[in-house]
Amino acid sequence: MIIIVLPDIAEEDRLMARARRGDKRAMKQIYQAYFSPVYNFIRLRVDDSQQADDLASDVFVKLMTAFRDGKAPRKSLRGWLFQVARNLLYDTYGRASAYTEEALEEWVPASREE
What we know:
- Helix 1 (9-20) crosses helix 2, helix 2 packs across helix 4 and helix 3 packs across helix 4 (77-93).
- This protein has 114 residues and is mainly α.
- It has helices at 9-20, 24-43, 49-68, 77-93, 101-107.
- The model has no long low-confidence stretch (mean pLDDT 84).
- The chain is globular and about 35 Å long.
- It has 5 helices and no strands.
């Protein structure tokens, strides 16, 4: 079973406020807290782990660009990140993207018989 752990919403709001003011430590904390969940979200849909890593990195490049340009998310950082991740998946693979057997095998424990 995959569990995606995200920071508390109040902590997320504080990080976003600091990042909007240009606090680089806040941006680093956002990256550290959210990269793994975003990567896991993408990895379940992409066979290639390196491609998943590249796409997850692209999500954070877009976030940093949004902060720089004053277009950062105002309400839900997590919603914004996962929407961007989903849009990158659609742009790269189309809407046919589904759970891949290879990716699932990494996450689903085998039964005792196997």
